[in-house]
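During the reporting period the student researcher (J.K.) took over the structure-prediction task from the postdoctoral fellow and processed the backlog of single-chain submissions. One of the processed entries is reproduced below for the supervisory committee.
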Amino acid sequence: MAKLEVRGKDGKKVGTVDVSEAIAKAGAALLHRAVVSEEANSRQGTSATKGRAQVKGGGKKPYKQKKTGRARQGTIRAPHYTHGGHAHFLEPRDYSKKMNRKERQAAILGALAEKIESNDVVIAEKIAFAGPKTKDAAAFLNSLEVGEAKRVLVVLAEIDDVAYKCFRNMPNVVVRTAPAKVEEGKAAPKTAVFSTRDVLVAHKIVIAKDALSRIEEVWGK
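J.K. obtained the following structure tokens:
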């Protein structure tokens, strides 16, 4: 079980927190499947063009078959005609790839374990601001010594509009939430929960202390 320092708003150590053994490394194959699944599921698959059978018009033969000196044609909606249908037309398709919930959770925790081992995770005692000011968020990240990182992932326990507005103008920062507790028989709320890809592409990760508890409680079972 790993121990992580908990930093206050001024960046100073205010305590430590034990990381659950449930946050353990996952195999590279599982991480790869999780990222491929996530990126495939984000594709819309709505690209579409019309084939010759779907283009309006062209029901009549443009001219007779023989004795014109021209190549025979059956319809002016053939692909080589202007306004004709596409030869290899696109149809809407589903790119989604299914992955078991337990596997997906294991992949996220595995990616997080790797970041913890490489000292790229900072636990903040609290992530809260008086008002939506970007300079306050920048000062907060600088106090944690992560402000210069190319990509920073900030994980909150739950949606906080003020905190989100503080970070949204910072191009190197992505704000996500920890998984929500779901009562039996009810659907999970639609929130921006962080994913395997979010963890892997981040150079530094800042997690609120209560968000870490939520992660261990919901995904560590």
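The committee noted the following: The first strand starts at residue 3 and ends at 7.
J.K. will present the remaining backlog at the next meeting.
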